[in-house]
Amino acid sequence: MKILIISGSHSRHLYIHKAVLQSGHECAAIVMEREDIIPKPPEKTLLRDVKNFNLHFKERFYKEKKAFGDLNSDDVFKDILVKKCKPGDLNSFEMSKFVDEFSPDIAFIFGVDIIKDPLMRSLPNIKVNLHLGLSPWYKGSATLFWPFYFVQPHYAGVTFHNITKFADAGDILHQCVPKLSKGDGIHDVSVKAVIKAKDDLIKLLEIYSATKKWNFFKQKTTGRLFLTTDFKPFHLRVIYDLFDNKMIDFFYENKIHMKTPRIIDGIN
C-alpha cells in the first residue's frame, strides 16, 4: 500500500507521522512549513494578557518537546520522497503533480491548512485528516483550547475524518479522548490527546492492512467552527486567572461528573 503523508512541520505533527512511516508501507510526504511554535502576543495586548499569552505558549512548547522530542522533517522523512512547501504553495500545481507521480492509495493528513484544488483533485478517495478536536462540537482552529474555555475539558479529543472542501466536516472514521487525571493542565491534556491519537492510528492502519477498508460515518450536525481570528489573548484569563490552569482538579475536588461525549469508535 502506498501512503501519502501531508504534514505540518511542528514536532506534534511529525510525531504522529512517524507512526505512519513505521507501519512499513511505501510512503511519500508533503511538508508544509508552519508558524513559529512560540508566537508573539498581538500588538496592544494588555499586560495581564501578555503574561498569560507568553506563559501559555512557552508551556506548550516545553510540554510538547518533553513528550514528542525536538523533531524536524529532514530527519523524520530522510528515507522517503519529500516535497516541502510554504502555506501559500500547499494547493499548487507543483504539489498536485508530486501526488500524481506518486499515485497513493490513501492519504493521511495532519497539521496543514485546508486542502483545495488542484491538490484536492489529485488525492485518493481515502484522504484522512487527523483533527485535534472533537467534530462536530469543536471544528476549525485551536480546538483543544476551546473546550477548556467553555469549561468542557472532557471534550478535548481527536477526530479522524475524510477531508472535504469544508473544514473538519467530512465523514468520521474514528474519535478518541485521553484519560484525564488530577494535576493535568491544559497542555498535559493536549499531549495526552496526541499520544492517544498515535496509538489509535497504528491500530487503524493495521485494520486497513488486514481488511482493505475503513467504515466512515456522516456528521449529523454542523457543530461549531472556530476561526484562527476567534482566539484572543484575553480568552486565556479563564484558564489561568480563573482556574490557575487547574480545571481538571476543580472537577475532581468538587465531584463534578465529566460525562464522556458520545464519540465514534472506529477500532472496537
Structural description of this entry:
With 268 residues, the protein is α/β, with parallel strands linked by helices. Helices cover 35% and strands 16% of the residues. The chain contains 9 helices and 9 strands. It has a 7-stranded mixed β-sheet, with helices on both faces. A two-stranded parallel ribbon has the order 6-9. The longest helix is centred in the last third of the chain and has 26 residues, at 186-211. The protein is globular, with a radius of gyration of 18 Å. The chain starts with a strand and ends in a 15-residue tail after the last helix. The model has no long low-confidence stretch (mean pLDDT 95).
Topology diagram in text:
Blueprint: E1 2-8, H1 11-21, E2 26-32, H2 47-68, H3 73-76, E3 81-85, H4 93-102, E4 106-110, H5 119-122, E5 126-131, E6 139-140, H6 146-149, E7 158-162, E8 172-176, H7 186-211, E9 225-226, H8 236-242, H9 247-253
Parallel strand pairs: 1-2, 1-4, 2-3, 4-5, 6-9
Antiparallel strand pairs: 5-7, 7-8
Helix pairs in contact: 1-7, 2-8
For the biggest β-sheet, the strand order reads 3-2-1-4-5-7-8
Rg value = 18 Å
> What proportion strand?
15-25%
Which H/E pattern describes the elements? Answer: EHEHHEHEHEEHEEHEHH
Parts with pLDDT < 50 across at least 5 consecutive residues: none
The class by helix and strand makeup works out as alpha/beta
Give the biggest beta sheet: 7 strands, mixed
Using DSSP, what is the number of strands?
9
- Please give the alpha-carbon distance between the first and last residues: 23 Å
Averaged pLDDT, please? 95
**Outline, from the CA principal axes?**
globular
Number of helices: 9
Percent of residues in helices comes to 25-40%
